[in-house]
């Protein structure tokens, strides 16, 4: 539920106002339905969180998932391990040993911990009500692959074009992925989305498995009935977490068949090699499942010189992905970890005695707290020049309007409901900028039925409105 308790009922003083710009929200014109916002604690990052003091553990979890004091993230992406051990930052597999071939009885091993991803997941589900869990394998275990190694590329034995003396491992890999879901189910966490690839165009020194679109479609045709037989017909198969938006778009032709027959549930893409600028050609929900500034030195700033880690820039990246590229979910790479880069939104200090949120987190929060799962994006017109404007109708009837002012101009902005069929009963506005950290703004009623506040330069302001239909 939207935190309506914190909404301030506005006083309808009829003060004449010279509105400098007006945004009109059109609830009749609807776009995609949102699935949510999220992040990951994979590659043993969850272990770093769990090694913190109990107070800092709670603070970290609140920053990620709490809907009143944190970002209220609604999606957690977990890594399904493929490595034989947990050395370095390996994600350990649930079947380290080859059971003796693709048709042998499996020899699964479950430590109930999964590099602390179980802890983060059960906290997310039980304490904060998160319902969307994306379990995503980077690779199959090495013995199932052409190169006999879970790292360094190679492909799944049995897909078209593969050649393996060990046989066809496709059904064994599908069973293995289903077993991972079952381990979580037994702990009370329902995995909602399942991915079997990560960056399938990349061969690298950590877990990686190559796949073309055709090979992915071939495996999806096996995985879907395997899930259904195990009573997981509600689990959506994702594909393919390509490194960039354009690469994923390029795989869609080969995925048309599994899209049309319902086997594929959600299209997933990262933003490293190409950023989302236009929709991927699919009727399915499309998620942006991984992006981060991997290189830049740690910054917690909102705006200083438009550097790669700054909050305002991330607010606009989220805008482009949702409004221009039609995504229904946005995930930053890592939530909480140590180290001096921007690969995460929240940094564990080197002495491990503090946890430091960046404005990237608050940029995300200004979306994720107000655009809840199930919200539909709706049309807007007007707005200040240089601003990016978006609007969403939540399931509970509240409407949130985001105004990202990337320019320096400050000005009054009025938000109105279009069509004269709705009046605004309650409203609040929230600001993110360089200085404000819990920025609730005053809103005023305008004499034409709108609500108004000042949007300063280089800021993001979110209006939350409760419209009521007029009789
Ligand atoms: C979230 O934060 C608020 C405010 O600090 C706190 O009262 C609440 O207990 C926290 N936890 C949850 C699950 O909301
Ligand atoms: C399948 O799931 C349904 C709904 O969760 C449950 O009622 C049923 O017992 C399950 N069947 C099996 C075979 O697990
Ligand atoms: C946007 O995505 C939705 C699914 O979330 C799809 O139905 C719709 O066709 C897409 N629109 C465009 C313009 O691609
Ligand atoms: C928006 O961002 C600011 C940080 O600049 C943060 O303090 C504020 O809580 C965020 N708003 C919400 C509602 O998340």
UniProtKB/TrEMBL annotation:
Boundaries of every Glycosyl hydrolase family 30 beta sandwich domain copy: 374-463
Signal peptide boundaries: 1-19
Glycosyl hydrolase family 59 catalytic domain sequence ranges: 60-340
GO MF annotation list: glucosylceramidase activity
GO biological process, one term: glucosylceramide catabolic process
Keywords: Hydrolase, Signal
Domain of life: Eukaryota
This protein's GO CC annotations: membrane
Similarity field: Belongs to the glycosyl hydrolase 30 family.
Name of this chain's protein: Uncharacterized protein
Lineage: Eukaryota, Fungi, Dikarya, Ascomycota, Pezizomycotina
């Amino acid at each position: 539920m939207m935190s309506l308790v914190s909404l301030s009922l506005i006083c309808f003083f009829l003060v004449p106002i010279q509105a400098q710009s007006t945004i009109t929200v059109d609830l009749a014109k609807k776009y995609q339905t949102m699935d949510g916002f999220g992040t990951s604690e994979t590659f043993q990052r969850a272990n770093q969180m769990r090694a913190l003091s109990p107070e800092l553990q709670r603070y970290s979890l609140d920053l990620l998932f709490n809907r009143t004091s944190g970002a209220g993230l609604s999606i957690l992406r977990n890594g399904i391990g493929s490595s034989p051990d947990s050395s370095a930052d390996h994600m350990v597999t649930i079947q380290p040993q080859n059971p003796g071939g693709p048709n042998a009885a499996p020899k699964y091993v479950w430590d109930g911990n999964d590099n602390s991803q179980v802890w983060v997941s059960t906290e997310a589900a039980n304490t904060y009500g998160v319902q969307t869990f994306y379990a995503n394998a980077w690779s199959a275990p090495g013995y199932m692959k052409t190169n006999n190694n879970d790292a360094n590329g190679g492909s799944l034995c049995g897909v078209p074009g593969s050649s393996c003396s060990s046989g066809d491992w496709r059904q064994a890999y599908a069973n293995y992925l289903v077993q991972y879901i079952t381990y979580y189910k037994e702990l009370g966490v329902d995995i909602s989305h399942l991915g079997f690839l990560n960056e399938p165009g990349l061969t690298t020194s950590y877990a990686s498995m190559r796949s073309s679109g055709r090979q992915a479609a071939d495996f999806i045709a096996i995985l879907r009935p395997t899930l259904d037989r195990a009573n997981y017909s509600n689990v959506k198969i994702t594909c393919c977490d390509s490194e960039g938006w354009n690469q994923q778009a390029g795989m869609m032709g080969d995925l048309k068949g599994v899209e049309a027959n319902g086997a594929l549930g959600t299209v997933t893409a990262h933003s490293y090699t190409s950023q989302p600028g236009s929709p991927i050609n699919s009727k399915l929900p499309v998620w942006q499942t991984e992006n981060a500034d991997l290189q830049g030195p740690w910054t917690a700033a909102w705006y200083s010189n438009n550097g790669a880690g700054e909050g305002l820039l991330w607010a606009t990246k989220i805008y482009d992905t949702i409004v221009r590229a039609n995504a229904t979910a946005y995930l930053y790479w890592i939530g909480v970890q140590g180290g001096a880069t921007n690969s995460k939104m929240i940094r564990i200090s080197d002495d491990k005695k503090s946890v430091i949120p960046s404005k990237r987190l608050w940029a995300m929060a200004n979306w994720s707290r107000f655009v809840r799962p199930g919200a539909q994006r709706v049309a807007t017109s007007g707005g200040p020049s240089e601003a990016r404007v978006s609007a969403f109708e939540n399931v509970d009837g509240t409407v949130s309007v985001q105004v990202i002012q990337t320019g320096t101009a400050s000005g009054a902005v009025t938000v109105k409901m279009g069509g004269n069929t709705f009046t605004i009963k309650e409203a609040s506005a929230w600001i993110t900028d360089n200085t404000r950290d819990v920025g609730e703004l005053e809103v005023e009623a305008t004499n034409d039925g709108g609500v108004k506040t000042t949007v300063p330069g280089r800021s993001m302001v979110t209006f939350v409105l409760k419209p009521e239909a007029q009789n």
